[in-house]
Amino acid sequence: MHAVEIIEKKRDGLPLTREEISWFIDAYTRGNLPDYQAAAWLMAVYLRGMTRQETVDLTLTMARSGDILDLSDITDYAVDKHSSGGVGDKTTLVVLPLVASCGVPVAKMSGRGLGFSGGTIDKIESIAGFNVNLPADEFRRLAKENGIVLAGQSLQLAPADGKLYALRDVTGTVSSLPLIASSIMSKKIAAGANGIVLDVKVGSGAFMRNLDDARALAQTMVDIGRDAGRDVIAAISDMNQPLGYAVGNALEVAEAIETLKGGGPDDFRQHCLHIAAHMLKLAGRGERWTDASEVEKLLIGQLENGQAFDKFRQMVQAQGGDVRMVDNPDLLPQAQWTETLVAETGGTVSQVVAIDVARAAFELGAGRETKDDPIDLAVGVKVHVKVGDEVEAGQPLATIYANDEARIPRAAALLRKAILIVEDEVQPLPLFYQVLYSD
Ligand code: URA
C-alpha cells in the first residue's frame, strides 16, 4: 500500500477499508511514515469525517497498537468510567471507592491535566506519598486483593493514540468527532473494560460546547462500543458551571473526601451517585442492580455507613499515601493566601462560567501549559454559589487560594467576569441532559 494513495482517498471523501486504516496507523506508530503524511491524513479526516465502520476500525487498530490489559483473572466483567473532562471534575475519586465498596473491582488508569482541564492523577498526588507509577504486576495485585487501584498510564496502552494525539495537538485536528471518539474508546478498550460508563460533558468548560455536538460524540462512542462488543452507557452532563465548589488539586481532594464521608456539595454528590449507579447497572448485567431506586439506596448507604470512605482510605494506604491527610484533610497542601469575593448586589446567580473559573485556577498555578510544567497542588478556587441561587449583597461568592499574592488580582478579575447576578428569577442548571445506552 502507499500512504499517499490512502491520504488522497480520504481527501476525496471516500471511505477507507479496514486494511488501509490499519496499514496506515501501524506504519505511523512504528515510525515508518513521516509526521507530514500522518498530519495530512489527519486533516483529511478532520475535513471529510469518517463513516461508522471507519471509526470502529480506527478505534480497534489504535487499541491493539500496544498492550491490552487482561483483567479476566480479577473479574469476569470489568467496568470502567471515563469523563471527557471538565472543571472541578473529581468524580473518579468518589465513584471508584463507592463502586468498589459494593464489591465491584475497579482497576483504573487515569491521566494528568493539561491546559484548563485537570487530571485525576495530579489531584490524587495531593496526598503525600501516593504512588501512581505502579508496575503492571503491582497494579493487578492491588486490583485483586483490594478491589481498587488507581494509577497513571504506566503500560503501553494505545501508543498509536498517544502519537496521533500529539500530532493533532499541533495541527489543528483535535476537535474532530471521529478522532476524539476513537481516541477515548481505544484507551478504554485497551484498558480491558467490558462495560464503560462515559461522562460526556457539555458546556463552556467542556470540549463539546453545545448539546448537538455532545450528543453526536456520545452516540459515536456508544456505536463504537456496540460494534466492538463492549457495553456502553454515555451520560451527557452539564459543564457550564463547575462541578461541586472546589477547582484545584488539593481543594478537590478535600471535597471528594467530604463527599465520601456523606457530605459534600449536593450537585457533586448527585452526579457521583448517578455515575456509580450506571457502573453498577453494567456490572450487574441485567441480573443484579436492575432496580434504580434500590441501587440509589445502596449507594447512599455506602456513603453514609463509611464503607465508601474506608475503601478510599484502603486505596491510599495500599499505594503509599499518607492516610493522616485522608482522616484530616486540613493536612493536605494549603495555600498561603486566601481572598474572598463578595456579591456587590443582591439577586439571583445567572451564570458561573466554568471556563473562566478554570482560567482563574490556572492563573494561580493549579494547571500546566505543557506536559512537563510543574503545578501547585495547594492553589485554586472555591466557588460558593450555583446558577439559580439567591444571594444578598455582601454574601461570599468565591474564595481564591494562592501561593503568590501577585496573582490574586488577575484571578479575582476572571472570577468577577465568571459570576453574574441578575434581578430576574433563574432556573438551576440540570445535572444531566440525556443518557444513551448501547443496548
Ligand atoms: N480525550 C482523549 O482522550 N482524546 C481526545 O481526542 C479528546 C479528549
Please compute the radius of gyration using only Cα atoms: 22 Å
Q: Got a strand count? A: 13
| Helical content (DSSP H or I, runs of 4+) | 40-55%
Terminal CA distance reads 37 Å
What class, by secondary structure content?
Answer: alpha/beta
Model description:
The structure is a single chain. With 439 residues, the protein is α/β, with parallel strands linked by helices. The protein folds into three domains: 3-49, Transferase, Pyrimidine Nucleoside Phosphorylase, Chain C (Transferase, Pyrimidine Nucleoside Phosphorylase, Chain A, domain 3, Up-down Bundle), CATH 1.20.970; 79-328, Pyrimidine Nucleoside Phosphorylase, Chain A, domain 2, CATH 3.40.1030.10; 333-422, Aldehyde Oxidoreductase, domain 3 (Alpha-Beta Complex), CATH 3.90.1170.30. The protein has 17 helices and 13 strands. It has helices at 3-11, 18-29, 35-48, 52-63, 91-100, 120-124, 136-146, 159-169, 177-190, 211-227, 249-260, 266-284, 292-304, 307-318, 323-327, 354-364, 408-418, and strands at residues 79-83, 106-109, 148-151, 195-202, 231-238, 246-247, 337-342, 347-352, 380-383, 390-391, 396-402, 419-422, 432-437. Strands 1-4-5-13 form a four-stranded mixed β-sheet, sandwiched between helices. α10 links the parallel β4 and β5. The structure holds uracil. Residues 165, 179-180, 183-184 line the site of uracil.
